[in-house]
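Hey team,

Filing this mostly as a record. A colleague (T.K.) asked me to run one chain through the structure pipeline before their review meeting, and I want the input and output archived in the tracker in case anyone asks later how it was produced. No errors, nothing strange. Just documentation.

Input sequence:
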Amino acid sequence: MYKQSAKNRKVVKKITGFGLLYGIFSFLYSLINGAYINIDAVILIICMLILFVDCHLIDNKKKEKLT
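Output structure:
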């Protein structure tokens, strides 16, 4: 497993938050307009969720080690 600093995790969390918002809005926009489902948005949402969960799991493991 790779090592992450606290500053890097904060940056990754912000980027994943923006990526999730962009993916969700893009997906909803395609649904509202009646177009085909935007596969790129779905893939982006899945990737951002994986990164987001990974960062939270790392944070939780570090908190458990401290206590």
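Quick notes for T.K.: The radius of gyration is 15 Å. Residues 39-66 form the longest helix (28 residues).
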